[in-house]
Specification:
One of its GO terms (biological process) is protein homooligomerization. The chain is α/β, with parallel strands linked by helices. The protein contains 10 helices and 8 strands.
């Protein structure tokens, strides 16, 4: 039998397995083994998970014949628990939310989005950061500057200018004009029209840089000389620690 014929035969075999599948299904999800029922997996017909087990098979099998899903297996137990009993997980909310999005289980997605953790992130924090001009780009700029200064060093420092209002932005620019250093190396955040304070934004910056795997801290940056305004009103030093 040719290789092509073997593949066709194998495809027919797997198709037949799905069509005549026992109610019990064995899964290998990222190396974690699960046993459940076909009806549980297809509980929400419009979901990607249900689609995986509908019609033409879309999954490979491992060496033991278990259907393989290349996702973090440790969180799949929460997905299964929801499908079995409608129990919304209370642990690992952020990670389970990512898996619910992947499997496109709309009822679970909506319930997780109502949880304090996801609601706070999606509605409160991200909506605030969306009002801070070029926030994501500035985070990436900070990281690029820090990495450029990391050669043969334990620490890198990045100066950040944070202004909440247009008036503060003008004062910050005045300070930058008198700053005895390369202005291009100062990363500017703001202004913004939202309730959170400068302290809140600084916490967000630290949170998002640390989420990328960096160890970081910050403190007010006080210039020794040359400033026409109090530098600690706007300027902060973020310290990256490499080892």
């Amino acid at each position: 039998m040719s290789i092509s014929s073997e593949h066709k035969a194998l495809g027919k075999q797997v198709t037949g397995v799905l069509h005549t599948l026992s109610p019990i299904v064995e899964l290998n999800v990222g190396g974690e083994m699960y046993t459940t029922t076909l009806s549980t997996l297809k509980k929400h017909p419009g979901s990607k998970l249900a689609e995986m087990f509908t019609g033409q098979p879309k999954l490979r099998t491992d060496s033991e014949g278990r259907f393989f899903i290349d996702r973090p297996g440790v969180y799949f137990k929460y997905i299964l628990e929801y499908l079995r009993s409608n129990q919304v997980p209370t642990q690992c909310i952020q990670d389970v939310y990512k898996e619910a999005l992947f499997y496109d289980i709309e009822p679970l997605i909506k319930q997780l989005e109502d949880s304090p953790q996801i609601f706070g992130e999606l509605v409160a924090r991200k909506q605030f950061l969306a009002r801070v001009p070029n926030y994501s780009e500035n985070i990436e700029l900070m990281i690029r500057i820090a990495r450029a200064e990391a050669v043969a060093s334990r620490h890198s420092s990045v100066i950040v200018c944070v202004v909440r209002t247009e008036e503060d932005a003008a004062r910050c620019q005045d300070a930058l004009n008198s700053l005895d250093m390369d202005k291009k190396s100062v990363v500017k955040f703001g202004p913004w029209k939202a309730a959170p304070s400068i302290s809140d934004l600084l916490d967000c910056i630290q949170m998002d840089v640390e989420a990328k795997g960096y160890k970081i801290s910050f403190q007010p940056h006080i210039a020794e000389k040359g400033f026409r305004v109090k530098s600690h009103d706007f300027f902060y030093k973020f310290l990256f620690t490499w080892w």
